[in-house]
Write a structure and sequence with these properties.
Length: about 230
């Protein structure tokens, strides 16, 4: 549950998706506001700015991109997560260029969306004080400090490694696909040239830092044919 009641503005014209989003977010403890078109979205955003906005691109009237642009022109800086249709690679790039913070491709899983929302709200709150400590046996990961504390000494984590761990830790003890890692951690740098091999290389390197026996990993485990899993007891 979020620490304070935060408000999320859902901008979407598809009734079933509005229902799902509203239900999911309210169950998670957020307040929601709904706008079914760009004009209403702009009005609400100005009159009662939310903590975060979920913004569909394909809207009747003003497009999601124009809504995003106008909001940033008005210097409203709450995080915006754009919803795009699958494989609209150009849309993703455009979205990020016009001031969106993140995008998610339809159809998406509720857990994935919540993970993105939590991550964005954490960042926008400047949540530096929040403890992001993960204990894996004798090893402690301090994500705030980007450091692994091992019995044999401290090891620094790169920003990317911190993001990989952070993403995996959103789904503890659940398999996460390489593709999900690519799409979420590498995000807009993710192109057809970025292969899932990139993920494997990073995981191997991470294991040398977080596992006492990297060749026989206990916490950052491979799920054959699927991807990886962070085992946290
Ligand atoms: Ca739509």
């Amino acid at each position: 549950m979020p620490p304070n009641k935060q408000t999320i503005l859902i901008v979407e014209d598809e009734p079933s998706l509005i229902f799902t989003l509203k239900d999911t977010l309210e169950n998670e403890g957020y307040d929601t506001l709904i706008a079914e078109n760009g004009k209403d979205a702009l009005k609400i955003a100005e009159e009662s700015p939310p903590d975060l906005m979920i913004l569909d691109v394909m809207l009747p009237g003003i497009s999601g991109f124009d809504v995003c642009k106008k909001i940033r022109e008005k210097k409203l800086m709450f995080p915006i997560i754009i919803l795009t249709a699958r494989d609209q690679e150009i849309d993703k790039v455009t979205g990020l260029n016009i001031g969106a913070d993140d995008y998610i491709t339809k159809p998406f899983g509720v857990k994935e969306l919540l993970a993105r929302i939590h991550a964005r709200l954490r960042r926008s709150d400047n949540y530096a004080g929040k403890n992001e400590i993960i204990r894996l046996g004798d090893v402690t990961l301090d994500l705030n400090e980007s450091v692994v504390r091992r019995p044999d000494g401290d090891v620094e984590l790169t920003t990317r490694e911190v993001e990989v761990i952070r993403f995996l830790s959103n789904f503890p003890n659940e398999p996460v696909t390489r593709r999900a890692l690519l799409e979420n951690v590498w995000r807009y740098e993710y192109t057809s040239n970025t292969s899932t091999r990139t993920v494997d290389v990073h995981i191997s390197k991470l294991r040398t830092k977080v596992e006492m026996r990297p060749d026989d990993p206990r916490y950052l485990v491979t799920m054959h044919g699927v991807g990886y899993m962070l085992k946290i007891s």
